[in-house]
Amino acid sequence: MKKNVMWVIFVLALLLASCGTSDSEVTPTQGADAIYTSAAQTVSAQLTEAATRAIPTVTNTIEPTLTATATVMPTVVPLFTATSALALPTTAAGVCDKALFVADVTIPDGTKMDPGETFTKTWQLKNAGTCTWTTGYAIVFFDGKQMTDEDSIYLDGTVAPGGTVNVSVDMTAPETEGTYKSTWILKNAAGTQISPTFYAEIKVGDGTADNDDASVIISDYSVDAGDSITVYVSGFPANEDIDYCLRLKSKSDCTKMKDGTTDSDGENSVKFTIPSDADSDSYWVVEVHTTELSEVITAVSDKIVIN
CB of 254 within 8 A of CB of 275? Predict the structure, then answer.
């Protein structure tokens, strides 16, 4: 095998030598060893050159370097900002006009009176505001049975903040037995009412109002929707305020239609109109009741038929 390779090298050397030089340049005196050596060197050089040309140039590709990215942390916003001093809540300003009920000085609630008996009711009030009460301040009737002709009673002196004052009203018990309440309130010089309210409550006779005699009579018990009727009441306490209301016989809700005041005999009459949208063949009643007595007196008419 080795001998064959040498022969191939020798032949290639001769071919290359013949291509690279002319006949005149060949030295016939060169020995076989020199020829072999020269041929081998030539072949080695040619092979190196060929190999260099045949092998492609390898280019080193530099992989991109990973660049570290800084992580952005969220900004933390403090819930509270520290300050050098803690702000305290501001105290609300005092109320100019403010009253407190202190006591019933005379006539405790539920005191029994004879019909027509006169008495003086006195209350004690405290100035709980920041403004001085002057003689322009007064107590005025607010609700219930007035039991006096006076609508207002003015203070007879000044009351400084924190001070107290007694206020009185001369009253007369009603002639009719029952329980009565007269409610009053303080007002300032400008007429503005100042809470709370305060009242006198008495019982005339045994304190029980007579409900048995009260009656309601209707002028016509068979009417059309939209018709007018007259309502007569009797047997109520004398000189009492009363309300008239109309309701379906089967219902408890009552719609106020009129108000009035009984005369000295406990009687009164009013006229009002049946609602135009009242259903045919429906049954209605008129209910009348007192408005100022603690124990309400009520009377109900017989049924009214809508044609």
Answer: no
